[in-house]
Amino acid sequence: MRAALSALHYSGVDELMAPFTGGAGVIFTLHHVRPDEPDAFDPNGILRVTPEFLELVVRLVKDRGFDVLSLDDVHYRLSEGDLDRPFACFTFDDGYRDNYQYAYPIFRQHGLPFAVYVTTDFADGRGDLWWLALEKVIRETATIELKMDGGWRRYACATSAEKTEAFRSIYWWLRSTPEDEARHTVAELCRAYDVDVSRLCSDLAMTWGEIRDMARDPLVTIGAHTRRHYAIAPLSVAEARLEITESTRRIEAELGRPVRHFSFPYGDEQSAGARDFELVRELGFKTAVTTCKQLLHARHSGEMTGLPRVSLNGEFQDARYVKVMLSGAPFALQSIVRRVNPWPPATSVAR
Questions:
Q1: Alpha helix positions (H), the chain
Q2: Is this structure's pTM higher than 0.90?
Q3: Which of 342, 343, 325, 335 minimizes the C-alpha distance to 4?
Q4: What is the pLDDT of residue 330?
Q5: Residue 341 pLDDT class (50, 70, 90 cuts)
Q6: Residue pair 287/74 in contact by the 8 Å Cβ criterion
């Protein structure tokens, strides 16, 4: 992927395609912002960017003439067809403490708006960050055994390469199973290998006090991201409604203001679909976002509760990649490829 984006950049093809593939705007997806040193085994590093890279992207979109908007203003621009100037919107999923520590000061310094979608169990310190728990188990063990598809599988985890392959294989298998089972499997692995993840959530997620402090700033929009961070599409309508409304009511009670924006956990095509977009619309949200990768276009004025976003991926922390994505060229080419060869389905790196 890096090679493809670099080829578009250095050949200038992205600039040639931009008049035809560029959109009205872009909503960026982020998770963690931390000044961590890279690690040889870093399977969730795709969810983390450095403060320096975030600063670079903020400056890049401003220099390229983009207005940086709040979610309310994105809704207004799309609703009114006010699309003469391109716009960017920065959104953070889950509600991690590093958003408060590292991202918020950057936006405050620039006087620019951004949004954080809060998973309420995370703010309560009892959320199940199972993808990070799986990473911790693999990091701390030399071999790992688990029952997969009715048989036992054993993975060597002595080297960083082996750990990375083990995580990739187990993670995507878990994503193919019912989510309750996936979480139970990871919890069993933690117990079997004596890996303590009891403080994982409370150490990483913002408290309600920190969320309230940030929410006092008019630059900050707080949206909902469900109660337990379950994919919505596999749930029954009643379960989905409960996940969404419980998180919304909790945030509203904590902040004393309405919540009008929502983000679907995972957000790929298998995690949120037409039924879920309609449900969120019926519940009164102005916008809801996915992790389906695309720029915003005028047609999205009729798709406000299923908006696409563009991930600021930890493996692509370079200005040239962001420039190419803002042209819309890679998403147009990807769409053509998927029409020609729709299998395997696209997967999302979002957690």
A1: 2-11, 13-21, 51-63, 71-80, 97-98, 104-110, 120-123, 130-140, 160-175, 179-192, 200-204, 208-215, 237-255, 274-282, 319-327, 329-340
A2: yes
A3: 325
A4: 87
A5: low
A6: yes
Which residue from 88, 120, 144, 82 is spatially nearest to 230, judged by alpha carbons? 120
**In 10 A of CB 198, how many CB atoms?**
10
Q: What would the pLDDT profile of 25-54 be if each residue is shown by its tens digit? A: 999 999 999 998 889 999 999 999 999 999
Q: Which of 5, 112, 6, 115 is nearest to 59 (CA)?
A: 112
**DSSP conformation class of 38:** P
Q: How many helices (H) and strands (E) does the chain have?
A: 16, 12
**What residues are paired with 27 via a beta bridge?**
89
Burial of residue 321 (number of CB atoms within 10 Å: 0-12, 13-18, 19+): buried
Instruction: Report whether pLDDT(334) > 80.
Output: no
Neighbours of 107 (CB within 10 A): 19
What tokens were used for 30? 């982020």
Cα–Cα distance, 94 to 267 (Å, whole number) = 12
Tokens at 104, concatenated: 């918020």
> In angstroms, rounded to a whole number, what is the distance separating the alpha carbons of residues 351 and 348?
8
Q: Residue 3: which residues within 8 A CB-CB, separation 6 or more? A: none
Q: Which amino acid is at 332?
A: A
Position 153 pLDDT exceeds 90: yes
Q: What is the dihedral of CA 345, 349, 350, 351, to 10 degrees?
A: 100
| The predicted structure's pLDDT at residue 14 | 77
152 pairs with which residues across the strands?
147
Instruction: Return the CATH number of the domain spanning residue range 2-125+204-340.
Output: 3.20.20.370
Residue ranges of domains in the chain? 2-125+204-340, 130-192
Cross-strand pairs, 49 = 33
Closest listed residue to residue 91, CA positions, set 277, 316, 262 = 262
Distance (Å, whole) CA 172 – CA 116:
26
Cis peptide before 344 (omega within 30 of 0): yes
